Request: fold
Amino acid sequence: MPDTIFHRILRREVPATFLHEDDLCFVIKDVHPQAPFHALVIPKATLESVGTATDADAALLGHLLVVARKVATAAGYGHAFRVVTNAGAGAGQSVPQLHLHLLAGRPLSWPPG
Ligand code: AMP
Reply:
């Protein structure tokens, strides 16, 4: 079983600021924020990335997006936020446990870098 920094945060072995937790996922503030509001939506189940997700993960992936919307709204950013996930090292993924980046609070240009 992979054991990432996010698994250790979930087990409260590493400190983090939790914004949300439910049966399926948790949300923490990113330690190196790329926007005034930058949170990570992370499933509790071990899942490397969207790149390894299967049909069996469809409901979980939908749940993560709904939670992202709720957290963004609760933080006052429901009108403008970005959800992005990196799948694979070549796409910038550094932690091999699926996570959605939730960014808001500044103009978000397109295309992203
Ligand atoms: P990625 O590069 O897409 O895999 O994103 C990993 C994210 O995890 C980065 O934005 C990091 O800043 C963030 N991160 C790494 N360690 C921690 C930590 N201990 N607490 C909160 N966020 C972290």
Remarks:
- Residues 58-74 form the longest helix (17 residues).
